[in-house]
Amino acid sequence: MNPRTTKALCGLLWTVAILAVPFAATAATTSATLSGYVRSADGEPIAAARIAIVHQPSGTAAAATAAENGAFYQSGLRVGGPYEVRISASGYRDRMLEAVTLKPGAQPPLAVTLTSLDVEEVVVTASPLVSERDLNNGVGSAYSADDIANQPSVTRDVIRTLLRDPLAQSRGEGNLSVGGVNPRFNGLAIDGSLQQDDFGLGTSTYATSRSPINLDAVESATLVASDYAVTASGFTGGLVNITTKSGTNEWDGAAFYYFHGDEQVGDTYDGDRTFAPAAFEEKEYGLSVGGPLLADRLFVFFSYDEFEAVEPVNFGGFDANNGIQPGFFEALRGVVMDVYGYDPGGRPASASLPEASERTLVKLDWNSSDAHRVSFTYQSSQETGTSAGADRLASAWIDIPVDLTAVTLQVFSDWSDRASTTLRANRKEFMRGQNCRAQGVGALEFDNLDADGVAGSPLEGLITGSVDLIAGCDRFRHANAYDDERLQVYGAFDYLLGDHIVRLGIEHETFDLFNLFVPSSNARFVFRDFAAIVDRTARVDYVNAPSNNADDGAAAWGYSRTTFFLQDTWQPRQHLELTAGLRYERYAQDDPPAFSQPIQDTYGIRTDTGLDGLALLMPRLSFRWTGLDRTVVSGGIGLFSGGDPKVWTSNTFQVPTVFSRVTTSGVSPTSVPDELRAAVAAGNPVAIDAIAPGFDVPSDWKASLRLERDLDLVVGRLNLGKGYT
């Protein structure tokens, strides 16, 4: 490409980016890039300087050659380190940078000065490589494996380390708010695979209850509030970007065991007051090991851990507040069994609820040649848990299985000293169950149980207050299942073009979601008092698809999103770096929502409008200036999209159902009255939600300005140390 074409291409990109600013996802970074300039002591560029970059633990080597202007660029490097970077040129003394650690993505440009061989005294200068807060001129923090290992965390949650960033706040395990934004808008990427809570019903950044990855398997964890690179997407809150560990040329590993139980809890407080803790125990154990399968070429890393806990719950406070005496629930259980021939289970005074998780990670790294590196990651997280309540008999307790599996394949290639590519494909499958223990049974809601109502029954004398209770299958779990699947394919091409590093690429994502949620599809039986239970008289609510098959009421939908991006990183001056880019996303969809004529007639809104054809152009612009000693000024502005809870959109694709109600006698908890089934079959289902005409892809503008300066806290004879930031 000739200089005139180069200038025209870069000029066009900068013009578009600058004009776009006043008119105001899915590629997480999994590798590191290193760029900079090599100059002589008098400031002249040194062409053909050789930059050798060696990852010392694995022997993985990469090399770059400086262009005529002294610029060099190398991508696809392993995250972490330590690295050894050697800069050499004919007629100059070699320079060596040791113990270098690289964070994901671009490092601050490296300015290297080489001294001529005929100069006797050598003075070497090189800019620092890494600042943990420098994220593509945006805002956030990057933490290494050592940072994570040195951060205390009883729950072994990587978010505990991220809370060192002043923009991060947490209310417990998995919960993370970045810059005050609701956690539902966060993204979580592990080796480039987005694994956040896509549906967004909870307040956790994780789709799982606990972190989906063992802490010992994390090489780097980055908290991103704003990142102005065009590859940043999939979040409008914050992004947690995790890169996993790889094997090295030496076999090493770690194992751990953690135990906590009621024996370790004190039994006195406030001096002489006593406390009897409920029986519980927690234990977590695991191991990780990595090493070479073929020295310098093929490496493996393996991690496995399990967590088991028994959580105590005590219902004594609930019983005392409602005047419930011992034996009440067993007596109620007996009445229900006598009247309906159905055992709803009792409700103990206390219980121990089991919780467990099992996590596995396998990673293979292959240096297929000096110019090509391949990485494969398999990750699995399985959990089980139970939800119980003081007002629920055992039949209404809920078991919650969770299963997450992700597979990622990455290829990093250097085609010349100027050109490199990154290819990545990953697939994530997720399932969460909401399984009631009384399958096929309706919800039994016993209201207004009090002393007067139970007089003369086996419950007499066992209650002095008034209480509402639930047995059978909770009405919201009659038909409740969720799973999703995401496939991401990413490709980027980087080219060093004079003073410019140009990146262009494409992404394609398909996302498929299945949400079965038909409450009261086994019928909801509401008994107004104890006499109604005995008389088998209840108000019965029933909701279902016209086929009377709850599976037909599931929302099964998906979309594909294709993205094109172009970015130019330009260093017009020695201490100034500018980056401008454009990101264009377009949605396609083959399965629009169902059309509802009643909604059209009543409100004039079509309910069969989907996501097909929606598009968004996102400009990004940022800068980095280092003109003052020990000072960095950076900032940017850009438009971002992604991380929106899919539950909002999913309501539009929910298959319309029909509601019916009757108050009747002779009810059975395992049978829906025929008249309700007939009413639903003859009913006219109506959509509950619609996408408005002119709907735009949700997006947010972000802008930031950051000043970072290194300080020495030395005042007179008081020396508190140097190197503060």
Structure characterization notes:
With 725 residues, this protein is mainly β. The chain has a domain at 31-126: Carboxypeptidase-like, regulatory domain (Immunoglobulin-like, Sandwich), CATH 2.60.40.1120. The chain contains nine helices and 40 strands. The strands form eight sheets. It has a 15-stranded antiparallel beta sheet that branches. Strands 1, 4, 7, 8 and 9 form a five-stranded mixed beta sheet that branches. A hairpin with a 4-residue loop joins β2 (50-55) and β3. The protein starts with a helix and ends in a 6-residue tail after the last strand.
CATH fold call of the domain at 31-126:
Immunoglobulin-like
> Could you say which overall geometry the principal axes of the C-alpha atoms support?
elongated
Q: What structural category do the secondary elements indicate? A: mainly beta
- Radius of gyration from CA coordinates: 31 Å
Query: If you average the pLDDT, what whole number results?
Result: 89
* Broad CATH class of the domain at 31-126: Mainly Beta
What ranges have pLDDT less than 50 throughout 5 or more consecutive residues?
1-27, 122-130
Number of helices: 9
Tell me the distance between the termini: 43 Å
CATH homologous superfamily annotation of the domain at 31-126 = Carboxypeptidase-like, regulatory domain
